[in-house]
Amino acid sequence: MDYTNLLHNSTGKKPKVGIIGAVQGYGYTLLAQIPKVKLMELRVICDLQIEECLRVLKEVGYAKSNLVVCENKEQIDHAPADAVLVVRDYRLVLDCGITSLVECTGNTAVSADAASSALKRGINVYMASKETDSVCGPRLNQLAAEHNAVYALVNGDQPRNLLDLYSWAMLLGLEVVAAGKSSEYDFVWDRETGLLTYTDGSGASEALPQMQDCWRYQGPETLAARRKLLENYTEVISADLCEMNLVSNVTGLVPSTPFLNYPIAKASELANIFIPKEDGGILEKTGVVDVFYNLREADEASFCGGEFIIIKCENEKMWDMLRAKGHVMSKNGKYACIYSPYHYMGLETPASILLGDLMRIGSHPECRQVSVLSGIAQKDLPQGTLLAVAGHHHAIDGLVPELLERASCGDVAPFYLLNGKTLIRDVKAGNPITMADVDLSDLEIYQLYQQGLALT
Length: 456
Hints:
By secondary structure, the chain is of the alpha/beta class. The chain is built from 13 helices and 21 strands. The protein is globular.
C-alpha cells in the first residue's frame, strides 16, 4: 500500500492514543515508536506498575514534566490537555479524550471489557491481545459496525500482516491454497561445524552432522527425517495456533489439521510442501492455515516469524517469466510461495492506527468463528485442577492446544477462557476441555463468545 495520502494528511485529525498494558514486550516497542510518528500523539497509558510506567516513558524520550499520574476521573479532567497521563485502572483510559485504544494486556477479561466499552462509545480499538480476539473477535467486529467505530488487529503481529498479504492476493484474483507463518524461532545449522542451534534465547547448540543427510529437500520423507532428528525441540505452540485462529476467522480458511503440520523447512521449499499430497506436498485439503519451523544456514537471513501464502500458478508463460526472476515456485510449476519475512511488533502498529482513525480501514464485519482453539488433556486431570495461562508461549500446563473447525468442535471450551478456571469434574488424558468441565458463566467475554457464535 502507498501511504503517501496519510503522510500528506490535511484533515487536521490526529489520533490520540491510549494503551493498556504498555511497558513490556509489544507495548514497549509501540511506546518507543509513537514519538517518531508526527501524525499521532500518546494521551494515556495504563499499567498496574505506575513507577515502571514512568521509568519506561522517560527511557523512550517523554519529558518527566509532561507525565501526570491520575487516580480518578476528576484528576484526569484537571490534567493539562497535552500531558501524557498514567493510570492504574483500565476503565479510566476511556475518560481521557482518546480516539484510539490499543489493548495489549493478553488478559481476556480486561481486554474484552475495555474493547467492548470503547467501541460502544465510538472509540476505535486496535487489538494486540490475540487471546481475546480468538474468543470474541467476531462480536467485537460487529460492535464496531454498530457504533460507527473501527475494530482492527494490528500490524506488527503476524495475523494482521498475514491478512494484509491475503487480501492483496484476493484483490489480484489469486487462488490461495494455504496461508501461514513460521514459528517464532529458527533452526540454524552451521554446515562447517555441524552445530544445530534453536534460536529460542537459550544459546544451546547440538552437534548434528547428520542434518547433512536431509538438508536437501526431496519430498515429505525429508520432512520426516528432519522431524526425527529434531523431535526434542518441536511442540505444538498455543500462541501459533491462536494466531492462525484469528486469520481463519477473518478469511474463512480452516486449520490444515487440528495441531497444524509444523514441517521443518526452508523458505525456498515452501511451495513444494504446503500443496496437496497428490502434487507431492503434505496437505490433505486446500484453503487452510498452517505453521512451519524455519530451517536455515548460519549465514542466511531469518524468516523472522514472518508470513506466507501459497497460490496456484494459472498462466504457465507468466510464471515461467517469474520463475526466471527468482520467485519461489514448486518443482512442478503449479504453485508459488509469496512471503513477508518480518513482523516488527509495535514499530509497525502506528500504521494500523492511522489507517483506522484517518481512513477507517481495518475492521472485518464479515469475521465469524470459523475455528475454535481448544485444549486437550496431556494426562488425567482430576476435578479441582486449576488451569492457568503462563509462560512466553501463553500455554496452559497440562494441555496441548488444538485448532478445530467450528463445525467439528462440539462443546469444547475456548482455550483462553480456561485461564484461572478450576475443573469441576475429572478429564481423561486425550480428551478436550469442554463447557461441562468448567464454569464459564461468570465471564462477560463468554457472553461475547456466544454472541459471536450466533452470527450467521
